Amino acid sequence: MGLRIDPSSFPPPGVDEVARPEETRTIVLGGGLFWCADALYRQLKGVVSVRPGYAGGAKTDARFEAVSGGHTQHAFVVEIVYEPAKLSLGQILQVFFSIAHDPTASGRKAAAASGPQRSVIHYTTPAQERIAANYIRRLQQVGVFDSLIQTDVTPLSSFFEAEPLHHDYAASHPRDHHVRMVTLPKLAKLRKLHATWLTPSAPRDPED
Question: What is d(CA 132, CA 138) in angstroms, rounded to the nearest whole number?
């Protein structure tokens, strides 16, 4: 990731959500394969549920093989249901931008910026749109990354849940190459930077 700053000093959002206790909201995020985000957000307290899936295309071809082959309009995403009183959208987005993926096109093929691994935020409330747009502007102004953020912020139009195989994929496929090389280092980074955000029952990295 093309960060210009130390990850430990990654700036938080300037504005955030306000919510009543036990109130829940939903946000859909995408960037890279959904296995990493799925693993990361499962460990955060205040997260009610995480579902990997596909957004931005039709239901008829919302299948891993078709989407990963770039033959559809979908993006790999995770649907996160959370309690803002315990884990705010700002915290969710801080993990999204600082750990989960590279939101710039730097170091990637040009097609990645518009393909299934593109960076997207699909909001479900006007407040989520404002918070996400404000945060992206702040990160650009501070110059956190070495190139422009390419994240699309759009309303959620559709979400299609991924096949059962992809739910909690990192835990059930610890020997997978992507899990070992990409997901596990991100989980370690999450524990190092945001230990107080983790649920007490957060699992350790999958064992070899």
Answer: 10
